[in-house]
Amino acid sequence: MKITMVGTGYVGLVSGTCFAEVGVNVSCVDIDVEKINKLNKGIIPIWEPGLETLVKRNVEKNRLSFTTSLKEGLKESEAIFIAVGTPPDEDGSADLQYVLDVARETGKLMENYLLIITKSTVPIGTAEKVRKAISEELKKRDKDIPFDVASNPEFLKEGDAINDAMHPDRIVVGTDAEKAKQIMNRLYKPFVLNGHPVIFMDIPSAELTKYAANAMLATKISFMNDMANFCEKVGADINAVRRGIGSDRRIGKYFIYAGTGYGGSCFPKDVKAVINSADEHNHNLEILKAVENVNERQKESLFHKAKAHFGDLKGKHFAMWGLAFKPNTDDMREAPALKLIDLFTNAGATITAYDPVAMDECKRRVGNKIFYAKKAYDAIDKADALLLVTEWSEFRVLNYPNLEKMNNKLIFDGRNIYDPEELQAKGYTYVGIGRRTKK
Question: What CATH architecture applies to the domain 299-431?
């Protein structure tokens, strides 16, 4: 079986590689010449555990190839996945320019039946726009080539994307064509041998399912952050509250951790997009608007806690551990660290930062606005306080002798990974998110 994956960003590259891993012949297409040249040399443009090994193995097996030519990529393909970016417009809506460009180009080039699948996260109605764009191009060519469209949203977590792709807990497919169902069943059969289902539904429902999933997860995060802030007002401990509600199976223990807010390429963009889509249909998603507002405020939480402690931050120096929006990725899109860097430096403070993999990405984004350390404990030298922003595993156990290089025994724990009593017993001042500490 041969498929074409258009877009070699996070979704396209991971999905295409994992299809190749189970024996599908995959041609990945991208207009970025430099990126394709690097991929053909085995240079991976994103940091994702396990991806480089899989890419190299499947290229060597001739199951995975990279090209800038859609015409070449479409040869002998039964299906084409559109996995290009859908960046937010100024109003928060998803920009479908690249999706529809691929659809039009496909209509210009296709010679035989194709199943066209939107893998990108897109608003309701996109599949019909794709269908229309292809039909218009075929009409211009005076061709009557049959095709079907489908929606197949991705549910990959950055940092664990290979596992998610190879062992999905569900596969959502929206289509109105029996032949499309047959192709999707054949394509995904290797991934559902563990018993998890391919869930078929109508196309609008599939398009909305992705947004609804991310919006629900974002809601859980903002809810817990709001509760954490309330805990600080009344002397409760959010970790105790989390354990109490997480034992309720109707709520569950996942995504109920308080912290510095969510970031990344999905939650912020998708929450904005679904709010905008609802507004266009004269429906006010009040809960999600509150979710977004809470999250934006939460990204500032460590700054306000530092101001409450020090008063004036001018001349203060902070160590920052963690820059990526979450562990196991170098992605800094909408990362809380970016907001904190702006707030602290604008207040006259300086920062020395360390992250296991996101240093280059941070330098690309903020340049010399902050200092960079080669090792975690180099960052804390002469720091007035430590800001824990991303919960990388290497930060979880503190080396107390190395911490003595700090000017003050002060830790702002933005992810609640440390034990307040342990730190206080060693003479440290601990400030968490919604945590109760002894006076």
Answer: 3-Layer(aba) Sandwich (3.40)
Q: Class of 211-296 per CATH?
A: mainly alpha
Tens digit of each residue's pLDDT (9 = 90 or more) over 135-185: 999 999 999 999 999 999 999 998 899 999 999 989 999 999 999 999 999
**Is 266 a residue of the active site?**
yes
**From 18, 231, 266, 362, active-site residue:** 266
Q: Do domains 2-201 and 299-431 have the same CATH topology?
A: yes
Domain boundaries, the chain: 2-201, 211-296, 299-431
- E strand residue ranges, 290-370: 317-321, 350-354
DSSP codes joined into one string, 152-197: ----PPTTSHHHHHHS-S-EEEEES-HHHHHHHHHHHGGGSTTSPP
Alpha helices in 22-88 (DSSP H): 33-40, 51-60, 70-74
Could you give the CA distance from residue 113 to residue 179 in angstroms, rounded to a whole number?
A: 10
Q: Would the pTM count as exceeding 0.85?
A: yes
